[in-house]
Queue: 2 jobs
Job 1
Amino acid sequence: MTKKEIVKQISDRIGLTQLKTKEIVQQTFDAIVETLISERRIELRNFGVFEVKERKARKARNPRTGERVDVPPKFVVTFKPGKEMEERVRRLEAGGQPQAQPQPSTAHHTEATEADGQDGSNGHSEHDDAVAGKIGRPHRVP
């Protein structure tokens, strides 16, 4: 679902113009980003928690050349869904309702992968996978 589709859905539900609704939605997104920058955490009850975390520097390996590279530390945004969202998603899975099929990815992920495997991860986050189109979860608003 796109921002435009969210705006249309909200506009239809509450009777505001799409232009005014788009402004409200954009202001909401801007407020979330500004809060993350200034406070590094925002909790939206019954929705979830966005938090800025620092990913540590690590050693990695260029997958094309096999050469070891240093990956500097960087800040990433994490999201932990709230109880209500988790429960609704679980009911969807448990209820046997059809789920959207993952979209095939056309993006190429060029970030180097973890060399040491010390933390058991593959060197990048779910966010990286989502940006690269590797996680096929649909983004839907109920």
Note: The chain has two domains: 1-39, 47-142.
Job 2
Amino acid sequence: MTLRFQKFFGMWLALTCAISATTVQASELSDKLQSADHVLLMRHTLAPGVGDPANYTLSDCKTQRNLNDEGRQQAVAVGHWLKKHGVTTADMQSSAWCRCKDTAELMKLGRVTTEPALASFFDDMAQAKTHNQKLEKFIADKLKTKGKQALILVTHHVNIYEFMGENVASGDLVLAKVDVNGKMSAYQLIPRPH
């Protein structure tokens, strides 16, 4: 009986180790984000409403449209999902708006840096083309120096729409393949992970 138990335990242990080994390997997402031609864009998580209140300022979160409790939970869930897919650390870049910075911080993938190229132009849609050119240049420059670290950009609906030409929901991710000039050549839309 002891011999049978030892054989069973040995087989169970071998199977458990084999399963663990396969789940630890990097996913396709993490492999692509380690390359020099992919970037992950993300729309901030749920912040009910549209635009910002009149007379808002970037230096005072209380004057802006912000994440609600659900939005904060969504940001944490996206961070966990990315970690499960092998993205354990990233160069986190964010718009200066508090809803973007909070989303990026709650994901807990690395220090968050505010980047002007990710700023919303919702208040002046005539700036769309100019802002998109700044975003493409920023992406091109960052991809040259990022090494194997993932580059994640947390921004706004208008920025992502101008970059890829498709509407995205709060918390959605866009895995973009870009050329040397930061222009998108292909993309995969990843609905907000739960």
Note: The mean pLDDT is 90.
